[in-house]
Give the backbone structure.
Amino acid sequence: MRGIVVAAQPEAAEAGVEILRQGGNAVDAAIACAFSQGVVDPQMCGIGGFGAMQICMPNRGIHTVLEFFARAPLSATPDMWADKFIGQSRDGFVFLLNDQSNDVGYGSVGTPGNVAGYTEALSRFGSMPLRHVMAPAIEQSRRGVMVRPYVHYYWTIDHGGDGQVNVEDKLRFSETGRQVYLRPDGRLKRPGDILHNLEMTRSLERIAEGGAEVFYRGDMAREIAADMAARGGGITMEDLAAYRVREKAPCWGEYRGLRIASNPPPAGGGSLIELLNILGQFDLGRLEHGSVEHLRILAEAMKWMTIDKDAHMGDPDFVDVPLERLLSPEHAAALAARIRAGEKADVPRAEEPADPPDTTVVCVVDGEGNAVSMTHTLGIPSGVITPGLGFMYNGCMSGFDPRPGRAASIAPGKSRGSAMAPTLLFDGEQPCMVLAAPGGTYIVPALAQAISNVVDFGMSMAEAVAAPRIVALSNTIDVSNRIPYRVTDALGAMGYPVQRSYQSFAFGAPHGLALRDGAWHGGADPQRDGMALRA
């Protein structure tokens, strides 16, 4: 086997597989896929975004995490928006301001990390030159990109007055956005239409020629900084030149005898391991999947994890994260005892409805057994596109708490907390599962359910990522539309507020690879347009 790729976009999976077929390793393929995703799904991620990845190369003794999150501008202050704060989305992902300045426009943009992360991973762990790995994305951009169903769905989400700006309005924010994403009559392009973005193509070509240097310290950096200065953005040449990828050791846990490695704070791997630790206190495999008791245990475990996340999970360079205590068996056992006793955790939250943030993923295993899991994103789109550059910047500033003195509060150069959790599971010393999910705060619950579906319920990866899911990130249990009404009626009778999604495949979108009977198999959540593809 030369390898296998799973991604949320078929074009991106093909880009990764093309590199594997040319002799590239898992890192080469993952970076090719990542650049492609920024082209074919430009509000999900891109060179204006940020992310994290986990790399395991057993034959080389390499197992590491690269973290390339966006950073608050160095000019940011903890109280800069304190008098504008009006609330928080029900999933906890977005903090709302009365003028929406953290949600759309130049004030919403943090220093991007993806270009630094992609290029550092490739130079240290890949086997191909940057120009070669970027070739599929550049060719896709030159050719034009067909609008797929999920791309259009995301563009047209109506936030219904919940305080967030609709993506369609962000696509109209810049002159480039209006040219690329709208038809000549001003209406939004529809599925099957083609996006032509020659400015994006040229930006990719410039990075292929000049690497991260051109983006963070060269001509592109100067263009970015000049645009920000002219329009009230916080990013300067100093911010760009100071950007560095952070390398960290994975945080570790165990589930039913399998070792789990995921990304440490401010990413979501610690929360994922805590959630699995709580679930590990129950014999879920003896329950009917999707039964009332199964969902009650899932919901309460998610609520307790959320309480700890909100209180403690921030950038460890700025806040003390008591990870050892949160991931201890004693902590999991204590929370499980409260669940067994029927106690309902209280997660107060503003009750606005939530829709999925923009994020995407790629997982790769190559023929040498190297494994990569990556999650990258714009956080939410900012709407901002610097004239001549073509790509949209992240809107990461909406994820900082405008109230000073909290784990997620604003600080200069700080990374916002993130639910990203690129995850590997090991049977002994060898990877046996590689998973990642988009979906903001839904990521951790989605991955935990996918892992449990494989381990506890014996599902294939394709079955596990497609099974009906729930989330409980507030006092409400949100359920997908394939959860039977008899189950939700019973939960309601127990005193749980239940909200039914109109979506059959809701709450995050796990994608994964699993080793079964000596062969790797993949699964892509059906709510996105992706696929697993063998090289």
Remarks:
- Residues 159 and 166 are 6 Å apart (CA to CA).
- The chain has 17 helices and 20 strands.
